[in-house]
Structures are given as C-alpha cells and as structure tokens.
Amino acid sequence: MKRLIGVVAIMLGLGFAPAWAGSHGGQPPVGAQCLDCHEAEVKSHGKHAYHGDCVSCHTSAVDHAKAETAKESAPKGSRPESINAGLPKSEQCLSCHKNDAKHMNFAFSDHAKANVQCRDCHGSHTPKIKSLTAGMQKAGKDAALCVSCHKDVQAKFNLRSHHPLREGGVSCKDCHDPHGGKQLTLAGKTTQCTQCHQNVRGPHAFEHAPAVEDCATCHNPHGTPNPKLLNLAQPMLCLQCHSVPGNRHGNTGLGTNGQTISATALRNCSSCHNAPHGSHMDQHLRF
Amino acid sequence: MNASKMSKYFIPCLTVLAASISQAYASDESANVVSGEVTPKLIYFNYNGGPGGGSPQYLQAFGSERSWTGNGNSGLYADLDVDLKIGDYFSLERQGFGRDSHRGAIKGGSNDIGFSGYYGHYRSGSSGLDYLNRPGTANNPVAGGPGTADNYTLAGNAGYLTKFNDDTGGQTNYSVERTRYGLGIKFKPDLLGKGTSLSFNFDGYKRDGNKFATYVFGNGDITPNSADQKQARWRGYNMPVDEAMGRFSWNLTANPSGMFQFAYDGSIEKFNNQARTALAGDFKSLVEAVGGITLGATNDMHFVPDSTLMTHAFRLSKTYDKTAVAAGYSMSQLKQDSFSNDQRDPISGYSKGKIGTDNAFFNVNHRLSSSVGIEGFIKYAKRENNSSDGHVSGVTVDETILQRNVRDKWGVRIKDLESLNYGLAATFNGLPAKSSLTVGWKHEDKDRDLQYNTIPAIGNLGAWPTVVMLQDQSKSNELYLRWNARPTKDMTLRINPSWVRASKTGYTTEAEDSFNLKTSLGYALTKQTHLNAYYHYKDKKNGDHEFVNTNKPANGAVVLGTEYKQKADDTFNALGLSLNHSPSEWLNLSGSLDWAQNDFETYFFGTDVRRFETNIVFDPRGASSYKVDTLSLTLNGDYQPTDQMKLRVSYTWSDTSGDLRTTSTATAGAYEVNDKIDNNLHSLAFGLDYELKNKLTLKGGYVYDRYKDKAFSNLNGGHHTLMMGVSVGF
Predict the structure, then answer these.
(1) Distance between CA B710 and CA B730 in Å, rounded?
(2) Distance (Å, rounded) from C-alpha A14 to C-alpha B13?
(3) Which of A1, A8, A12 to mutate to test binding with chain B, by most B CBs within 10 Å of its CB?
(4) Which of A15, B522, B664, B700 makes an SS bond possible with B492, Cβ 3.0 to 4.6 Å?
(5) Residue B86 forms part of a structural domain
(6) Is residue B556 part of a domain?
(7) Residue B457: Cβ-neighbour burial (10 angstroms; 0-12, 13-18, 19+)
(8) Nearest to B282, CA basis, from B243, B235, B241, B242
C-alpha cells in the first residue's frame, strides 16, 4: 500500500501536470471593469473569481456599475440610488454545476427544500469559514460551517456520548451529503452507518430485527446522554420490546414468578447480550 | 499500515507531486504562485484521574494520546502542520494534533482533470464506560462483595449475573486506532466532452487495537448446574481488533445530447477481519476450574466475518422550464466470505451469507406559477436475506429455521423487508412576512416477511408471534408544514410542525402517534450582534403492541387470553440560544446555551416461563421511566489586540443529570430510583498566534478537559494539552 500510494502520487504529478499547464493561459476576467473596485475578491483563492465572468453570477452587476459610475459624477448634494450587484441563486450556480453527479439532484435536496442557496455554504471568492474558534480547531472548517446553522446538532455534540466531531475523529460530510436528501438516497437505512462500521453489518446468522432495519432505532449518531450513542439508557431501551422472563432476569430469586427487574443489576443488558447487532452462533446474541 | 508510517511515505510522495506540478507551471507566472506555511510544533499532554491515576476512561474514549515513546499517561510529541498552495490548482494540507490525531488532504487539477487524496488517523479508548463500573465488579463493589451483584446473592438464586469473571489477565488499557485514506481522479467534461465526466476513487481504512468483550454461558454450557458453576458464567476478555476495508468506486456522469443528466455509480468493497477470533476453548480451563463446559472448544466468540459488498446505482434528472424530474435505482449484494467454526460444521447447515437490496426513487416538482409549486415523490426499498436457512441433521424441521446444533435456533427472523414511501407537497411563495409555506403529506408502508421457530418436536424453544412484539406491517401517514419567513430584513424565522399517525407499527419504538415541532429564529440585533434561537419538541407514543397470555397459572390470578399492552411514551424538548457579537474586526465574541430533556416511560413484564416456551403467562410488573436533562454552555472569544497578536479562547460546560426508575407494581406511583445519571464536562481552550516578523509566527495553545461523574467516580479525570509551534510562511 505504501508503495502504491507513492507510485500513484508521482504518476499523477508527472503525468498530468503538463496537461494542466496547457489549459490555463492566465485568461483575464471578462468582468475586468469590476476589478477597479473589487480587486480584493479577485486576488483571493476563490476559483470563481478567475472564471472572470462576474455578470454571470452577479446578475445586476451592470446596473450596479452604472449606478456607481453615476454616483461618482453626480452633483454634490444629490443622492443617486445604489443598486445591489445581486447574489447568485442556486439556479444560476446549477446552470453550470448540474453536470456534476453530486449536484444534479440538488433541486430535491433537503437543503433546497429549506430554501438554502449554494451561496449560503459556498464562498465564491473566499471560504465561508475563515478561522476556527479555539474549541473547534480539531473539528475543522467543514464542520464549523455546518454547525453555524445547525445549532441544535452542535449542542448534541456536547452530550456525554457523541461521535468525535469536536475531537477531529469524524466530519459532518463523512455521513451527510449536503447536496442530497432523504428522498434521493439509494441506500438502505443501515447502509450509511455501515460504510464505516462494517464489523457490525454481517451478514449475521442470528440477526437482531431492529438493527437490520434502522440503526436509529437504538442510536442517535450526533449525541445522547447515554453511553454508546443510545437513545435511552439500558435497560429501558431494551425493555420497550423485550419482556423480562422471570426465571432468568429477575433479582429476588423467590421463585419463577413475580420478580421485578432491578435496574441496578440489569444496568446493561449488553453486559451479557454483547452482540446486539447480530451473532454468528447464538440466538440470544450473547457472543 | 499505521498512520505514522503512512505519513512517512505519504508526505514525501505529495512533495514530489507538488514539485512536478510546480515545474510544469514554470512557464505560467500566474499559475506558479507558491504560497503556504509550515508549522513544526511540540505537544505535551497529561492525563490524570481514572484507574491508576493516569487513565481517565471517559476522556480517552474521545481521543487517546501517546507520547513519542509510547507513554499513554503523559509525554511529549513533535508534530507538523503543512498548508501549501500552488496557484489555484494544487493544495496540500496536513494538520497534526499529536501522535494519534492527525489528518491530511491533497487536491489539485485543471479544467480537464482533477485529483484528490486524503488520510486521517484517530485513536480512541475502547474499553467502554461499563467495564470498570459494571455493578458487581471490583471497581464498583456492592453488598455481596467485590465481583458480585448484591441482589443475586440471596438464597435460592444464582443467576447469570452473580459474578463477573475477568479473563483479561489484568488488562485495563483498551484502544483502537483508525487510519483512513483515499485517492481519487476525475476526468472532467472539458476533456471528455460536454457534460461527461468519469471518476475513480479508492477509499479504505485500517482498524487496529483491542477492546473489552463479554459473554455469558447458559445452563447447558456449564455443568453441573450448581451455584458454583453458575458463578462462572459471566465472563469478559481482551478482544483483538484488526480490520481493513478497501472500496473501489467509480462514477460516470453524462448529458447525452443535452437531453437529460445521467449518473452511474458503482463500487466494490472488501472488508477483512484479520484478528484471530477467540474460541470457547481459550477459556475452557478457566471455566472448568469450577465446573465442566459443554460448549465446543472451537466455538467462536464474537465472530466477525469477512465480506464483500458490490453496488450499482443509476440516476437520471431532467429540468424543463417549469418542471424538474429525478429518478434513481440501485442494487447491492453483500456476501459473507468467511464462516465461523460453528457455521462450518455441517450440522448447522449454514453455508451462505447473502443479503441483497434494491432501492428506487422518483421525484417530480412543477412550478404552477411564480408563487406556487407542487412536488411529489415515491421511494421503494427492499432488503432480501438470502442466507442459509440451516437445518438439523436427522431431524425433520421447518426448513426455514436456522439451527445451531439442537439447542440454539432462530427465534424470529426478517426474511424480506419491503418499504414504500410516497408523498405530495405544495409550496406557496410570496406570502405575508416574506414567507413561504410548504404543506405536505407522506405515507410509509413497510412489510416484513417474519419467520418464527415453531418446533414443538424438539422442545418448545421457538419464539411465537404471541410472545414477540415485532409485527409484520407498519403503516403511517405524516402531515407536515414548513413555514420560512423573513418578516424584516434582519430576521429569519422557521416553524416546522409535523404529525404522524400510524395504523400499524412494527416496533414499539415506532411512533403510533407523534407530534414534532422544530422552530428557529435568526435575528440581527445590530450590524455587529446576531441572535439565534431554536426550540424543538417531539412527543412520540406507542400503544400498538401487546402480549397475550397462553396459559392460566395454578393460582388463577391471570386469565387465559389476557392482553397486556406495552405502552411507550417518549417526549423530547430542546431549547437553545446563541449570540454572536463582533464590535470590531479585531474582536469576535459568541456564546450559546442549550438545554435538552428526554422523558420516557414504558412498562415491563414478568413471565412464568421463558419467553419462547409454551403456556406462557405475562404479567405487568411495573412501569419504568427515564428522565434526563442536559444543559450546555459554550463561550468563544477571538481577539486581536495588536497587528501581531491573535488570541482565542473557548469554554464549554455540559451537565447531564437524571435517573432511571422502576416500580414494583403496574399501577404504583412510587418509583424506586435504580440508577442515576449525573456527570459534567468542562473544556477550556486557549490559542495564541504572535507574529515575530513577516511570515514567521509563534503559535501556542492550551486545552484542559475535566470530566466528573457523580454516579461512577472511577470515570473522573482530567486532560491537559499544551502546544507550542512556529509557523513559517512562504
């Protein structure tokens, strides 16, 4: 693997660099007149500034420029009206970017349904998140961008049990497609989780039905007050569906009937049933 | 390949790549601008608290550091941050937070071809919070003495949980390292023709380490069946973890003659478990110290199979003047590649592990006018379990039942699972308060092909529909509203209520009746001050499942055929407020306060025999409740007092408290508190950047985490991290 990575990286570098060199001739921006005032935007690393066609995104840029020019030559005391250059709507971005497989169904995405525009996440000239707070250094800029809107989700990452987002172990994009949505997914409800957690996906000879259907039956991936991202503490989580056979799980030893459950003794059903996602040899999912 | 080795080879390769690109662009001045910074840094860390004084199990579960010499309690580590850009066509980034937490990414390309790569390494404690704190273990002694659970020491009872037996040999250090990596190349439309692109990606990871695993032997596993033997049943051991995954995927996107957009995604993924699986025989001598063991010596404990997953997905989309259409179909096949010793035994009849899925969707939206749009969708999913059904040699049984030897058999199994969702929505724009309103309806229909074991001939060990609350159908309707408004230039408001009503539910965890409300408010108090707030409420109820008695016990207290409903009521509240204040470009302050409450109630039942035996009597024994509140406060400040200095500070506090309660009778209101949740976490972080001279910056950081658990004091502990570095820009 080490050698493979090295060889591929060198081949990419040596093989494709000349091809790229020929494809960029340092073309001047079409909206060159905009640069007189907006030099900073173009000097940034944003690729779109180098597309050069300011007007294709800022649809009122021509009127804006005219108004600004008029203001310069306006007599003193007059107040010519300013016109906003206009910010691009998603439709404008998608007129070019729909060819990308990631964006082709954006119209039906959860973000689009919530009126989120491309520009709300993507900075055309500079990144939306320029610096990170001290507490988000490990989380990274992608996660910081997401939680700038999803405050409720950010709060869940402060709960006792959470995916290690703040700690840098995962990022929002590892699980979520910001251009997708529930109506667009072509994967089962467990597929998203088992793309990383293959060790619990089976196939199992003895399956646990809720684990087969939806990981979220028992887990909340963002965070919960309970260990292992469980929606409820054990044993309540398990007791919803499982009755308690008196002669195995009771705590009084006073016969086979009438025993009450002791949460102290049964704090964790998984202490014994340690294969809750499925087992290869035990119908009771113990090992 | 561990992360340190990987980075050792990865970074030089990337440097060669960067150099080659730089050379290629030598003739193009605008493309040959090299910029970036390199930050060598030294990191010191120290853990305190937890078992042994330097092992706070909770904090290590979220990042377990080691020093250069491998010390996991405290020490030093040298690291390097790299941020390199060549023009607008190449970028390389690496961020290191210590020996066991670092990541890197590379990206580049032109209008014709793009490439990308990444890696990440993260190590976390994996002992689980339970291991050292399980009731009855030495670290959490109870009335019966270390290693015993008090309620199981009463006369006449020696249950499975009487005593925990530690087979780890004193091992307390559990951790798993996860290293992920990937490479991708994309041939863009400019190269292949308008609208056509082709990409290939490889993604993979490696997991290495160990974790704590438990198991429990049953009555038939240990003989003779005396109290002494029973005390040997519950055991735990040090389980190795050594897994690797590699996924090769590809995508073809095309726009044939401009007619529609088409995408095909395919992948093949191989998962390998390279760790040796523990066998029952490994523990045989330990168990036999108190009694005989009948479990086969070659029985695998927590067997994880190798597997291969293949997927194909096709998507189409077309946008007309006022209408957009999207459709997709995918299929996958998951195949088990290795089998446990038990499964390989011909008597088990288990030789095939295979699961197939099919998914499809169709979406359409249409703009009726500038202010009204309508949308419809339909989504279909199917999961088919084509694994071996199994059989018992020489015994005529239902062939659909998998059986291991004669004792263990499948209780209930979902052979097929089909779901169909569809819905309609209408969106009205241009309403008062600059708002839009979406009114929608969704229907969900799930059908499960359930199989039960009903084999009275060899002992009533199957599960029957009457004793399992899983039902074969779920049917629900959801009505929802989405109101997004901008009543003033400075305010945004979202109110999204939804109602779910199910005529059938498969699980108690599904909603039979549910009301869900999500609201959020954004308000710019001034140009410098922004306020955000949210409130979420969800109430979910289910009373759709019941147990039915199939016997009348001798005392006659319970009537044959009596139904007992399992009622579950789950309420969730969350409220948050955040404020961002930027009085100048040199100072940015923000803070947020969040509260969440989970409130859950359900019944539990007792039975007179095991749940899967015949002539069973259910009796509601009481109610159980779970109510937990969480409060968290986050404060951030970024301040630049001079042109040379930047300061950052963050503080997060979260507090969780609540309890689990049960009653001893169905109707009694006096709950007994069985378990408490009471913990808090403080996290304080400082950062300093000081520009010594142009392109030479001194960087420093300090983080202190402190976890306190009042219910499990062994988890208490702290973690200091101090970082010093020098950033050299170019």
Answers:
(1) 51
(2) 12
(3) A12
(4) B522
(5) no
(6) no
(7) exposed
(8) B235
- Whether chain A has a CB inside 8 Å of the CB on B399: the answer is no
Q: Do B606 and A45 touch (CB under 8 A)?
A: no
Residues B387, B336 contacting (CB under 8 angstroms)? yes
Question: Minimal CA–CA distance to B456: which of B615, B607, B342, B609?
Answer: B615
The DSSP-derived string for B34-79 is EEEEEEEEEEEEEEEESGGGB--HHHHTT-----TT--SSEEEEEE
Searching chain A, which residue's CA lies closest to the CA of residue B518?
A152
Grouping H, G, I as helix, E, B as strand and the rest as coil, residue B293 is strand
- Beta strand extents in chain A (DSSP E only): 161-162, 206-207, 223-224, 244-245, 278-279
Query: What integer pLDDT is reported at residue B81 of this predicted model?
Result: 95
Specify the DSSP class assigned to residue A261. P
Mean pLDDT to the nearest integer, B697-713: 90
Answer whether residue B211 is part of any domain.
Answer: no
Return mean pLDDT, chain B: 83
* Domain span holding position B362: 345-463
How many CB pairs below 8 A link A and B?
Answer: 499
Give the Å distances, CA to CA, from B109 to B17, B117, B186, B599, B626. Answer: 12, 12, 9, 52, 54
Is residue B607 included in any domain, yes or no?
A: no
Cα(A230)–Cα(A217) distance, integer angstroms: 9
**E-assigned strands of B396-459?**
403-404, 408-409, 412-431, 435-452
Mean pLDDT of each 10-residue bin along chain A, 287 residues long: 45 39 40 72 57 75 82 76 81 82 90 90 84 90 93 91 92 92 89 92 88 94 91 83 63 42 57 86 81
How many domains does the structure of chain B reveal? 2
Asked whether the predicted pLDDT for residue B327 surpasses 70, the reply is yes
B698's tokens? 């001194």
* CA–CA gap between residue B468 and residue B504 (Å, rounded): 15
Domain ranges of chain A: 90-175, 203-279
**Closest in A24, A246, A251 to B110, CB measured:** A24
